[in-house]
Fold this protein.
Amino acid sequence: MAAEEEYIGTWKIVECVSLAGTVETTGIEGTEFILDESGDVCWKVSDDVEPLPFFNCETYEIVPEKVYSYKAMKFIGTYAGLEVNFKVEISDDLMLLTYEKCCILQCQKISAPDPKDDVPYSFLGALEEGYFSDVIITGDTSKQFHVHSTILNLTAPGIDWTQSTTPLTGLPDDVLAATLHYMYAECLPRGISEDTVKKCVKLVSKLPDLSEFVKLCNIFLQNTALKQQITSLITDLHNRADKIIQLFRGMKLDDSGETESERSANPAKLCYITKQCLREAAIACANLLVVCDLFSRRKAELSREERHDIIKYARARIPVFLKQFHDLLKELGGQLCALNAHQRADFATYLVPEIETALEIFTKYVSNSKSALEQIINVSETERGEKNEKSRKSTVGDVLGKTLKHALHVRELKKLKKLHEKSTTTFFHFMQKKEAFCSMSQSAKIRDITKLFESVGDLVHISQNKVTEFIDCLETKLSMRDWKYLFKLGTSKISWAICKILHNQSMAQPLVKQACDLVHREEFTSAMTSLGLLATEVNPSDQPSTSKGASGAKHTSSVAQKTEYVQLGSVESLCVPPHGRDSRTATQAFKLLQSQHRTDLTFEIIQTHETGDTVVDHTAGGNVEHMGSEVKVDVCSIPAHRVVIATRCHWFKRALLSGMRESIDRKITVHDTSPTLFRMFLEYLYSGSLEMNEMSTEQIADMMTLADRYDTVCLRSKCEYALRHHLDENTVFYLLSLADQLNARTLKENCMLYLSENPLLSTSEVFPDLPEHLQTEVEAVTLSKLGPHDPSSSATPSSSLSELEEVADRMNLESPGSSGSSSSDSLSDSARLQECVDGLREVVGSDVPDQELVSLSLAADCDLNRAINFFFS
């Protein structure tokens, strides 16, 4: 499901056009979806928009033209196996999604992924170090917290922080620390305990402007409880598996002290063990259903990071389950091998009536299940007919929704019918085998069961070897990406099946009760009840909490389990500060800069201009002009806040805490920039984000230089990323020189790539203005594309070699006229060049000329990986 880079980013549906070419109002305009590099799609849908089926899709795939004869974007919904195929056409920031016989969705890219822009926004440095503090808050143990009224007012402006006693004074130290951490970082501290969060909810809920903090605490408790419940259920699965293994080992039979051979020879006890193991397996399967249903139904409550945390945890348990399954097969195989012919005959004799009884029960249960499935199919077909009889909808949006929903309903109906066909065929073969077995004589039945023991033993041995092989190569056979998709698909399909049963509960209820009676274990009945499959008579006050799943059916949550909390990992999304564009604190900080309220620092931006004055002399019968010049100095002052500036920029922090003039005068002088540009720089420090769509190439380049001067790495990287989209024939040499000056590798590589694709630019008038080493690198990149300058020289390879030798000389691979001590270095460089050329030859084949391979090797400084990248780019 690898996604192409041009599709990755955030898109917004701006128009829905009918196939006739008319623009229709559908209600889904403004809907946003995010396509990421891992193949996931995330939808942002307004509450008033009617949800379409593909809004439930969680992954996407770009399908090449050879599959459908056109390039397609396939949205895949793991819920019910939904697939929606659109014909996709993309050009720059515009994407057209065409749904067959319906409409065209016009989508606009509103943001491209920029990993350098994803920088958490916080003022934690000021809280931890306490510089420029003007308020002291004391906890219940007299511990003092040095804080800043400027920062606290951003989060809680309704509290007067200038008073000697604040509403936070006297709170427990852990509660106070967590509250202040939120006010400085807009998140919870890492490693915070559930007890602390509960105390925060209790003690801080009535304070003004901290409702978001309390809401975050409640989300933490809910998500932690869900993850704890899932962890507890998975742990219980491990325990059930261990118990089954122990039962087969005979460790928990009784206290009779029988030996293994005596126990193995006792068919009644082995039969008892088998029944107990089947009951444990049934409970484990029921708990697995609860895990899948919990995740599928409540994953919307979790962030993407938390969902991935659970998926990774489940992935980490696979080797443990496989090891347990291997041990179970080993014990089962050992038990079968331990039985001699006489013991197998005794065991088969004992099993004949047991098997006959089990066959009768199983036949009745399967027959009832088949009848229930037929009723469910009939009900689904009736619902389909009723939906088709409803009023026809005329708008494109309604047609799209109706078409997709109809397709989903038909798909579900086909799945049910296919399941019914398979079950009918299987039931028919089962009944044939049952009748054949029941018609046998007693001795024939015993022989048949004895042969079954032998075949089962062989099957167990083969399965044991397969499991061993899979454990050894687990990482290579099941990548995290594949597991993530399989986990989502499996959990969603199980949840869909449960929802269908709940939707037809009156038909399925007798089957569930019969299953509970057969297992006859309280844990199994509790699991069925928690899934909502088994109705129980309860008082309203005792009714468990419910949550609503994707299909709209109410679902009873799993019963609370009193187990020790096992943390899957920190609740990442709640313990990481938000990005500047998503931070409310950043928004308030930007407003604070604009208001200039309570500033305690001044920036002086000094600009110098040379002005020319003309003096006219009328003597000697003519006018003579004398040119003069003077330097004009403009000073612009911009007020700011020390704590904000120091926390958001380490260069200013060092200047303000150094004890030098800047810290004493509370004034920082800035040269070689404009007030407009520096104000934008400050806006980035305050808000954590900077919109560059409207900035010119020169402005972004100047901003990158300013960010480099003040060591603001995140802004520097953001500018470097933005300049990649400003490359053209007029800017490439300017940006190449800037990238070389600031050591911006990514920008320089993009400039070199652009020049390699446009080799004629090396003949422009601007090229000689580049530094000599950059000219050499550009010539090396463009030489193979441009070819020899003299047409007559192209006929002989010697002229090409002479040019390459000249380039090699300019690259200092061999200094002209050097000899003696430098000869060994020259030989070493030549060896590196030859080694790189040979490596390239192995990769690209023998069709590429030597001249081009040498040029690529020189351009890559004899680095084979870079040379290969240059070749394929």
